[in-house]
């Protein structure tokens, strides 16, 4: 009886998401625009949004208008895109590797991005021609490529092998890759940065949305949409992969090309996000698990739910990072890790019990 | 004429007892401030190694400095310093040579019979155990600079040179303060000091209340819009723009590790960012360029005070 009831509820729930999504997202975006380092009256915020979106002509202070439109709203939109992308990358990696602990942050992508950024910022790689973001992007792809090849060389992982063993190999490869790139980052910092700079770099490594402007939105939105569409398109394949590569093959899925394509797409999207805002951990781990609790593990529902929850989670974390310590902005990665690390421990312990 | 030094010189320096038996013949410096003070005391011939440079050496010492080995631009290694066989290591920052020094702790030098002297400007009124660039426990004042000069002059037995240098700096300090007070500046005039940022657009490093820039603003009757007591807090442009200081002071430096190190990049950002370009300091071109090293607690702080006073005298505040 109760099972039937749950099913009926979750089916209705699955449909309801479609209605709730825009409403929840818009609410989160408005909250991200309304709450910040300095207090701005609500009517000012509404006037600025009306001016910008509806072509109204309210008189508002130009600095207030600039802060609301150019700093806060663009920042909230990028936070949403970033949360969506990182959470979806987690969903895909967990399904493909059949490992609840798979997450872009744990698989070397963030570590590589950090190294790339630091190499540009501190060591002057590219002599000014390379931007910090491009360095992060190259580093992210490089480290992820190394992790995948390492797992592959262990005769398992992306190219073959069996579920659990393959998953174990790629997680171990991720740890090795992360350590290698973290060591490189530390090497670059200690050989060529002063303490003041090391602090600045650390701020960036923990994620930093303070430099976001509309130009970043034009990169973040297409990347996030691309990630979402890829996941939605392959939702049935993802379902099949959760039962293992052999099961997926028996369902008529071209295992290697689909798996390769999904991993490359997620690595790309993650690298884009890391290059815009720095390394933000645990989003790809915590959000998919939380959503499985709520909507179940079918990807038809899990993908949109995770995309929305990731967006809201990161907008919320960003708000917290701005208001937690008065007069100071914490790196957003600090907030997500403070929430994420205990959740990680919980997943570990729970996995052991089951 | 000042007295000759009676050795041994016993001092409490940044909380550490030191005893100097005779005037040091060989010195290695860790920090540009210590280097330039020794040069100013006419002691270039007793310096045989330098490290940690922020700006080019003061022009009057360029020739002497060229003869002296630069061990490292940034942090030197402990062994590189020790290998120069110094009698004394003169230090600008405790985070280089101090309890958790990146070069060494003071004990490591003392165990080898090498004395250490840390400029009091970095520890009087400052807590360096907080990490980063430390936190001021009370306002920096040039007294700590003069104290450092007096003590070094005594250690090296050049007390006349020490007194002459202090007299010169005090006179310059007073002239700058007099100039500013003659300007009839507005009661509520405000400013912010922008050192650099890790990337253009991200929250910048700005001067807190109690460091060298705080001292300059206090002396000239200007309010610092940044309220933190940290030496160089990171504060969002949103907060800075909302505070809308009348004057922005931006650091010039030779360092090129962050895009914002370049003074032109700073100017370009201020002019083009949709929020900062609306700030009154930017709109009315009340932007002052200052040597980055003057923004640290050093002898050059007084030069920075002059720079700021002169810039104010050339500004119009009638909007």
Structural class of chain A: mainly alpha
User: Low-confidence parts of chain B, pLDDT < 50 over ≥5 residues?
Assistant: none
| H and E order of chain B | EEEHEHEHEHEEEHHEEHEHEHHEH
Shape of chain A: globular
User: Taking Cα atoms only, what radius of gyration of chain A do you get, to the nearest Å?
Assistant: 21 Å
- Radius of gyration of chain B in whole Å, from Cα? 20 Å
Mass-distribution shape of chain B: globular
Task: Count up the helices of chain A.
Answer: 14
InterPro entries (chain A): ABC_BtuC-like (IPR037294), ABC_transptr_permease_BtuC (IPR000522)
Keywords (chain A): Cell membrane, Membrane, Transmembrane, Transmembrane helix, Transport
Main location (chain A): membrane
Subcellular location (chain A): Cell membrane
Describe this structure in words.
The complex is a heterodimer of chains A (354) and B (319). Chain A has 354 residues and is an all-alpha fold. Chain A has 14 helices and no strands. The longest helix of chain A has 36 residues. Chain A is globular, with a radius of gyration of 21 Å. The N terminus of chain A is likely disordered. Chain B is built from 11 helices and 14 strands. In chain B, helix 4 links the parallel strand 6 and strand 7. In chain B, helix 5 packs antiparallel against helix 6. The model of chain B has no long low-confidence stretch (mean pLDDT 93). The chains are: A mainly alpha (354), B alpha/beta (319). Chains A and B meet through helix 3 and helix 7 of A and helix 8 of B.
Give me the secondary-structure topology.
The complex is a heterodimer of chains A (354) and B (319).
Chain A (H helix, E strand, L loop, with lengths): L1 H33 L7 H13 L7 H36 L11 H13 L10 H22 L9 H30 L2 H11 L8 H20 L1 H7 L3 H6 L4 H23 L5 H13 L3 H25 L8 H22 L1
Helix pairs in contact in A: 1-3, 1-13, 2-3, 3-8, 3-11, 3-12, 3-13, 4-5, 4-6, 4-11, 5-6, 5-11, 8-11, 12-13, 12-14, 13-14
Chain B lengths: L8 E5 L2 E5 L6 E4 L1 H9 L6 E5 L10 H5 L3 E3 L5 H5 L5 E4 L14 H6 L3 E4 L7 E2 L7 E2 L6 H13 L3 H23 L8 E7 L8 E2 L5 H9 L2 E2 L12 H7 L3 E6 L10 H10 L7 H4 L3 E5 L8 H14 L6
Helix pairs in contact in B: 5-6, 6-11, 7-11
Pfam families (chain A): FecCD
Family (chain A): Belongs to the binding-protein-dependent transport system permease family. FecCD subfamily.
Membrane topology (chain A): Multi-pass membrane protein
